């Protein structure tokens, strides 16, 4: 009989949409995984529940004020409780863990991603913001440590799978699909009055709040363009975005012979999560299963960059590189949070991003300190702009 090798895994951001989906996949394949550690920001109720179900060795709550409460909730179990950002970073490099899933939202995940890569782990990455903000820092670390980054973002998972069918020098173009979000056809003159409630209703995906707003402004697609540049080490000129409202084709790769290779499924993040968790193997799974005979229409069209300025800015930023993507990302995080708090209008998100990137000088070959400094300055600048609106 074959012996099944269990993978020791760590899930950062386990209480979020991707984190919960990851645990669903793990629950279906318990014989294949040891959950060694879990981490979240402040949701101790769900985190404690997950600890009871998956019995990790260690759990981290980033919000230090909640550490004592979590410890008390788990006092009958032998689980180490750690608190604070350092705890998150330490879990990313946990001895004995071979797969780190980073499903934290925002640039808050950057240091953990770097720690995982620095010590040669396999990093299954949902936290696109860490690759956007810290893009230039990853290749030298990967070269030194032999780490692997496995994308969880459905588009990048599709590209990764499609790229495997040819050679890098045969690549003509990467075609990233976008659903277009809830406002693809919405009258432009009404954009100013879009409410957070409207923007939080995504037509095809159920996701966390920040990425749902990013999908409505198409800043998410912008982040994905920058992510693709960093992950696949291709120039931005080789990346195209197409609107595909059905969210069935998750992205495509065009080779020099004009063949286009695509990956298709029903929209379900548990499929790219499964692919990353089991890579390089494919396993029997029904997540995202598609009945091709029931598909009656797949459409593709170019994005309207006048309607979605954040995507236009992202293309410019991807070409600039250096600290510019960190600034783009931080300004977007501030603007999204101001929009969700009712402080600014929907259309002001893209404006804040643009004004912030225009104001901040770019360091072209940045260190981690340069990136953290750019992130901090961008947050302050974007906050000032939002406050003045
Ligand atoms: N959702 C999707 O379908 C999807 C698809 C593709 C890519 N992604 C990417 O995956 C990442 C996670 O997205 P999501 O939709 O799962 O987000 P989410 O539902 O908002 O969950 C975010 C997770 O990160 C934790 N967190 C928040 N702030 C943190 C901090 N400062 N330090 C450490 N942990 C923190 C949260 O903990 P608490 O619950 O305690 O606040 C939660 O566990 C994002 O980068 C997103 O762009 C998501």
List key phrases describing it.
389 residues, seven-stranded parallel sheet, four-stranded mixed sheet, binds NADP nicotinamide-adenine-dinucleotide phosphate
Distance between the termini: 67 Å
The number of E-state strands comes to 11
Q: How do the helices and strands follow one another from N- to C-terminus?
A: EHEHEHEHEHEHHEHEHHHEEEHHHHH
CATH third-tier fold name of the largest domain:
Rna Polymerase Sigma Factor, Chain: A
Q: Which percent range describes the beta-strand content?
A: 15-25%
- What structural class do you assign from the helix and strand content? alpha/beta
pLDDT averaged over residues: 97
Question: What is the CATH architecture descriptor of the largest domain?
Answer: Orthogonal Bundle
Biggest sheet, in brief? 7 strands, parallel
Q: If strands are numbered along the chain, what order do they take across the biggest sheet?
A: 4-3-2-1-5-6-7
Shape: globular
CATH class type of the largest domain: Mainly Alpha
What level of helicity do the residues show? 40-55%
TL;DR?
The chain has helices spanning 17-28, 44-54, 67-73, 85-92, 110-118, 128-134, 138-145, 154-163, 196-199, 209-217, 219-232, 270-278, 309-320, 324-340, 346-359, 368-387, and strands at residues 7-12, 33-40, 58-61, 80-83, 99-102, 122-125, 148-151, 171-178, 239-243, 249-255, 260-264. The chain is an alpha/beta fold.
